[in-house]
Amino acid sequence: MNRNLYNIHILGIGFMLVFSAFITASFIESIVFKDLNRNGIGAKTGFYSLAIIYTCLGIANWFSPAVVKRLGCKISLFLSALPYTGFIFSMYEPYLWSVYTLSALLGAGGGVIWTANGEVIAKNSPGDTKAKNTGIFWSWFNSSMLMGNIFLFFYLGDAETIGDKQRHVIYLVLGVLCTLGTFSFLLLRPNDLSLTENDEAGIVPVQAESIIQPIKDAIKFGTTWQMRFLYCAIMFTGFSLNFWSSVFITVIGNVFPKRSYLALGGICTGVGEISAGFIWGRLSNKIGRHGVVMCSTVINCVLYYLAFISFPFDAATTTVRDYHAVLVIWCRRLNFQ
Question: pTM of the entire structure?
């Protein structure tokens, strides 16, 4: 295996391990805090934590190109993954200050880790191999939606709360996964197209003005008419991510008593993403990228509406122990119509 392909696989494996842990941890965060209900932590703490994470991530994206340029890809990936590990291990016995502090650090690291990821793929994809290498990476990454949630599904079983013992085991296992992924980034190899010897050492001799330049370029690019058209799509993606990664899973936890249903929701999301990627990839040759975007957006909106009318309106904030909540509400809707 040549070095370019080796680096792509190592990158994908690292992201799979880190995000298997993080996605699973963030999926159940609000319900875990609700079941914990001490140290100043409650049901809404999970929502606040996720808000801090993605706010800091959005801000960090403006500065991450300069960080990657200064530190190099390997060290940037390693250092930016450390807050993910710290955040997950902190859930062993969470406190309000530790949750919010590590959420901010994780968000800042998230901006860097995704910028470094793109840099590694670009520099290890000579000629026309970028599409293939990107596909390899996403094949690894998409499996992260399944790995942690499958463990969670079988471990929680029929449990109706996530107590201290379950929480300790869950976050220790997820923390170990994240640690393995973090240190796997150090296995990236330098080559002519990607990581230089200085990059491997984590030192890239660049001048101060070149560090500021990526920020200036990002601001300049952000004001172009092409980006202005994308802002609506970016906002839609943000709302979508917020819905399926926090609100929807919390609703499931408040409606259905078994905590394993949280993991089942994550597994279904992962299966949907993987299968949809395959289906839309095939259809893109027939209906084009614009057709794929329009069709997937319409399907998303329809499913969001179905979720909206299928669950009690207060299910995101309070416990609604109704096994037949979905059926009852649908009967009411049909009777109304």
Answer: 0.81
